[in-house]
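Progress report, Aim 2. The chain analyzed during this reporting quarter is listed below.
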Amino acid sequence: MLRQSLQQKLLQKLSPQQIQLMKLLQVPTAELESRVKEEIESNPALQDRKDEKSTSEDEFGNESQKESEEKPDDIDLSEYLTDDEYSTPDYRSHSSNSSYHDDDDKVIPIEMHTSFHEHLLNQVGLLRLSEKDHAIAEQIVGSIGDDGYMRRELRAMVNDMAFAQNITVTEDDILKILKRVQQFEPSGVAARSLQECLLLQLKRGNTELDEYEELAYTIIKKHFDAFAKKHYTKLEEKLGITRDDLRYAIEEILKLNPKPASAYSGGGQRIKQYIVPDFIIENNDGDLLLKLNSRNAPDLQVNRDFMTMMKTYKETKKKSKEQKEAVMFIKRKLDSAKWFIEAIKQRQQTLLGTMNTILDYQREFFRTGDEMELRPMILKDIAEVTGLDISTVSRVANSKYVQTEFGTFSLKYFFSESLQTEDGEEASTREVKRVLQNIVEAENKLKPLSDQKLMEGLKDEGYNIARRTVAKYREQLNIPVARLRKEI
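Predicted C-alpha cells for the chain:
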C-alpha cells in the first residue's frame, strides 16, 4: 500500500568547492604538480603564469574596468570584468612560505635498473633448451614472487600451460627445469620453502662442504623445526654435538639470505619512492622557522583570453543565442578556475596552520631531535587549536613529510597516545616503546627477558603498564618473544 507523508530531515551537504579542497588536502607535494597540470588541461580558463601571453597587467586592469548598461535579460558579467583578484594570486607574494628559489627546476630522478624477473629471463636465454623446455622455464620464472620464492604448485603450472599455451607437460618435466632454474643467481632463487632456500644456498655449485657447513646442512635438512624454534638443547642431544659446534653451525646458517631477491631492487617490481618534503623546519640558533615547499604554491591565474571574450560580449549590443550559450560556457569555466585557485590558497593556509600547531606541540623534539622529547599528541589536540575538523587534520597528516636537521619525518610520526607515569606525568606511547626497545637491546641474549620481566623493567623506569600491553608494543616493534631472541 502506497502512502504519502511529509518528513523533516537535517542533512549536511558539501559544496563542490569543499569537496575539491578536501581532495587537494590529501595530495602530497610530489603529486600536486600532476594534479595542477591535469586541472589546466581540463579547464582552458585556468592558466600557468609561465604560459601567459605577452599582455601587461596594467593594460588588462584598465580594460576590465569598463562597464556598459545591460538589458534585464542579459547575463551579469560585472563580477568577472572587475574582479582582478585571481590575476595575481596573493599566496604567490609570501616568499617566506617558500623553501626553494621559485626559479629552480626541481626534477625527481628516476632510477634505471634491470628488474629481478628480467634478470632471471636473461639467464634463461643462456641455457640450451628445446622450445618446450624454454616455455616451461619462462613459466617458472613468471611463477616466482618478488621475494624470490616459487609459490605456485607444480600441478597448477601443468594446467596453466595446457590452457593458456596449449602445451602438454608433466610435473616431472617442470621439476626437471625447476632444478636448473634453482641454480640461477641469486643463490636460493625459485625455492618452494625457506628450508629449501637455505639448502640450495648451502649446496651451491655442489662444492664440498666443510665440517660446520655439513653440520648446518644436516640441521636444516633433518631438524629444521627444532632449529626454527631455537630448541638448542634438543639439537645438541639429537646430533651429539657440543654447544660450540652448534654455535659455529648456526653462524654458517646466519650467513645465508632468507629472501634471495632482496638484493635485486626489492624484487624488481617495486619502484623506489623519493620523498619530497611538504615542509621544511630550520633551526636558527634555537629559533625554529617553518617553511612550506614552494611546489605547494603553483603560479596560477585566470586566462586573460577568456576575460577578453567576456568583455567583448558585454560591449556587443546585439547578442545572438549562440553567443549567450558560449558566454555561459565561459562563465562556468571561469568559476571553476577561480574555485581551483581559491582551493590551492586554502590548501596552503590549512597546511601551514596545521604544521605550525604541530611545531608548537613538539617544539622540544624539533630543537633536539630526541625521540624521548615527543609529547603525547592526537588528531583532536591539533583540531582544537586550529579550529579544523579532525578529518581535515587527518587529511593534512596523511602522506605529508617534514624535513628537519635530524632527518625527514612523516607527520604521522608525531601522533601518539598518552600514558600516565608513576609520577603522574603524561608520556607518549612512542616514548614507552623506545624505553622498551632499549631494555631489549641491553638484555642478556643467553637468557632473554620474558614479557613479565619486560613489564617489571618498564615499571622500574616509571612506566606502569600491563603485561598484555607490553606484548602488544613488542609486536608493534617487531621484537620476537623471549625464546626466539635467545642466542648461544
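The longest strand covers residues 279-284. The domain at 416-488 is CATH 1.10.10.60 (Arc Repressor Mutant, subunit A). These observations will guide the mutagenesis work planned for the next reporting period.
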